[in-house]
Design a protein that fits this description.
With 645 residues, the protein is mainly alpha-helical. It has two domains: 443 residues, no CATH class; 125 residues, no CATH class. The protein contains 22 helices and six strands.
Length: 645
């Protein structure tokens, strides 16, 4: 039995349902995957991965070999010139391939995707050249991420960043991988974090290309993945970027019936579980849209029972895959009275920004006219092509659900003060609209040219993509390199102004804006002098950078809105308040050793006269009697250490 070749739509995919091409063929389902990779159209994904594996090590070491400060124009020249040379060379190669070997154009798209992902390594490594820290240094969220990675150097089970006897509330996979990689490489976790940021961002573009390539042409997949990275790809949140690049095409292939074959239920379930342990917020923001999408897809299915069976298998695999994180947290949550949610009480200054990103109201270095134009085109395309383009309905439902979540959270915020982290929804629907903009142009432009009976020169077809890539090179470099001539990233700057644990600063640290040193090494030595090496004493520290460097158990996070639900931040802080008011040394020693949440064995505080400061609480010198405490008050930066005898 033979099967006629399917007609192709403007996206370069078969214009019939995914299963029709193999309908009636014995064993067709088992051979579908092999056929995909054995024909020329299946090679771009393999070539993208191989190219990335070969080019990434070169891009990784090149900034160090060149040795230019990232704060100079010469430092910026490396990623910009490298990226533009790749674009120009790619245009010449594409012209030659189209002229003499047109069948290899799809393969060239795969090579281009691998090189684009490797170029991201080049620009991000150039930005971090000269510093061992990642983007953001050890400030804000990166303080907690580095502490989480450090915690996973001494444990493999889900663990709270500060209070290790509690399971993690935040998705742990990224910090777990960084911590375990640090153990394998025999280096501190905080030194590994910057490399992880670089590699995850690069691999995110590759993952997006591989997944989109399953449903659209290779060049369209390249454009979509590049635009998605440009729309939002904060290296500090590299794991969120990876999850987002997977999430959008995963929705399309898991819950709808795309033109080509769906993801196997096992693969879809594994990817679903991966997103839960990597960053599950995208699922939460889009849940309303997913529910609608499932109902609509179910109603359109010829075999509704099979569709439900598939979803059940996907959900089962995802549940099993993420159980090492989800089950311990749920068990602790339900057996410990529910905890106390305080983490979303922080009202971000960007909470009201970017409600309509294509109008330019969003905050971020990558927001410019071209991106906003793509997002506007995407918004129009999602509505206009709702019934004619297979991708329009799922993307519209994702974007609409995320926007609805944000509006509902605004109402909740006014009533309760809880934000629901709704400002992060911009990252989801902003990227969705940018992707939709590319797909709309890919869909509409050929139809428009056909309607106008215009046949553009063959070489002109690749010009828009070349312009897009050249814009991406300059835009992304300007967004994430540290400042040179007034432009650049403050997060890259923070990686260079963060002090080293033993004192001093990274090689290219600017003279102004340096972060004050916290004497981690002297504190460690003072505690180990009293306890022996590798102490496992619960510590209250005036500076949480201590936990970024050392896997010591903590008593309480310094920032209320950074505390996990299970840690009961307010109740622990009340215990500290009672301790600060207890002036009797013997009673203070006894009560600090038996709080409602366990003992505090090490106090690391700042001295100010007779007062010892932790956040807004004031302890006093007479509370720490030498009969009960080993006292070290000779440390730099007015830091004092008190270790229980």
């Amino acid at each position: 039995m033979t099967v006629d070749a399917p007609p192709l739509d403007v996206d370069g995919v078969p214009d019939w349902p995914a299963d029709k091409a193999t309908e009636g063929l014995p064993g067709a389902a088992k051979r579908a995957s092999w056929r995909r990779w054995s024909r020329p159209a299946g090679h771009p994904g393999v070539l993208a991965v191989l190219t990335w594996l070969l080019a990434t090590p070169v891009a990784f070491v090149l900034p160090g070999l060149i040795g230019k400060s990232p704060f100079t124009v010469a430092g910026w020249a490396l990623p910009i010139s490298g990226g533009l040379l790749l674009v120009c060379f790619g245009v010449l190669v594409a012209a030659a391939v189209r002229r003499w070997a047109p069948a290899a154009m799809e393969a060239l798209a795969g090579v281009s995707a691998g090189l684009a992902a490797a170029w991201l390594v080049l620009v991000l490594r150039a930005a971090l050249h000269g510093t061992p820290f990642g983007f953001g240094g050890l400030g804000g969220d990166m303080l907690r991420m580095s502490a989480a990675a450090t915690r996973y150097t001494v444990t493999i089970t889900s663990s709270d960043t500060t209070v290790p006897e509690l399971p993690s509330e935040y998705p742990p996979l990224y910090s777990w991988l960084v911590g375990r990689a640090a153990v394998l490489l025999d280096q501190p976790a905080w030194r590994t974090l910057g490399d992880a940021e670089v590699l995850f961002i690069s691999a995110s573009l590759l993952a997006g290309f591989l997944l989109w390539r399953r449903q659209v042409g290779a060049w369209a997949a390249l454009a979509v993945s590049c635009v998605a990275v440009l729309a939002w790809s904060d290296p500090r949140k590299a794991y969120e970027v990876m999850a987002l690049m997977i999430f959008i095409p995963w929705v399309v292939e898991t819950f709808t019936r795309p033109p080509r074959e769906r993801l196997h239920w096992l693969t879809a379930g594994l990817l679903g579980g991966l997103m839960v342990v990597l960053y599950q917020a995208w699922l939460v923001y889009a849940v309303l849209g997913l529910m609608v999408l499932i109902v609509l897809a179910w109603r359109a299915e010829p075999d509704r029972l099979a569709y439900l069976r598939r979803l059940a298998l996907v959900a089962t695999v995802a549940t099993v895959t993420s159980s090492w994180y989800v089950l311990p947290y749920l068990w602790a949550l339900f057996t410990d009275g529910g905890g106390q949610l305080v983490s979303d009480l922080y009202a971000s200054p960007y909470y009201l920004h970017g409600l309509l990103p294509f109008l330019g109201l969003q905050a971020g270095d990558q927001s410019d006219l071209l991106l906003r134009g793509l997002q506007a085109v995407g918004m129009i395309g999602l509505v206009w092509l709702l019934r004619s383009a297979w991708w329009a309905r799922p993307l519209l439902l994702i974007a609409a659900a995320a926007f609805a979540y944000r509006l509902l959270s605004l109402v909740r915020f006014m009533l309760t003060g809880h934000t629901g982290f709704a400002h992060y929804t911009l990252r989801l629907y902003g990227v969705v609209l940018a992707i939709a903009g590319v797909l709309t142009l890919v869909h509409v432009v050929p139809l428009l040219l056909r309607r106008l009976r215009l046949a553009p020169p063959v070489g002109l077809v690749g010009v828009p993509l070349a312009i897009l890539l050249a814009w991406g090179v300059t835009s992304y470099t300007a967004a994430w390199m540290p400042p040179a001539n007034g432009a650049g990233s403050s997060y890259a700057t923070a990686a260079h102004t963060e002090p080293l644990p033993g004192g001093g600063y990274p090689r290219f640290a600017p003279d102004s804006g340096r972060v004050d040193w916290f004497p981690v090494e002297p504190v460690r030595q003072a505690v180990e002098d009293a306890t022996g090496p590798d102490p496992d004493r619960v510590t209250l520290s005036v500076d949480e950078r201590l936990f970024s460097y050392l896997p010591w158990p903590g008593y309480l996070s310094n920032d209320r809105t950074a505390g996990g639900t299970l840690s009961r931040w307010d109740e622990r802080q009340s215990e500290l308040l009672k301790l600060s008011e207890q002036r009797d040394p013997a009673a203070f020693a006894a009560e600090s050793g038996a709080t409602a949440f366990g003992p505090i064995d090490v106090f690391v505080l700042t001295r100010s006269g007779d007062e010892l400061i932790w956040e807004d609480l004031r302890f006093h010198r007479e509370q720490f009697d030498e009969r009960y405490w080993v006292i070290r008050e000779d440390l730099p930066e007015q830091v004092a250490v008190y270790v229980r005898r």
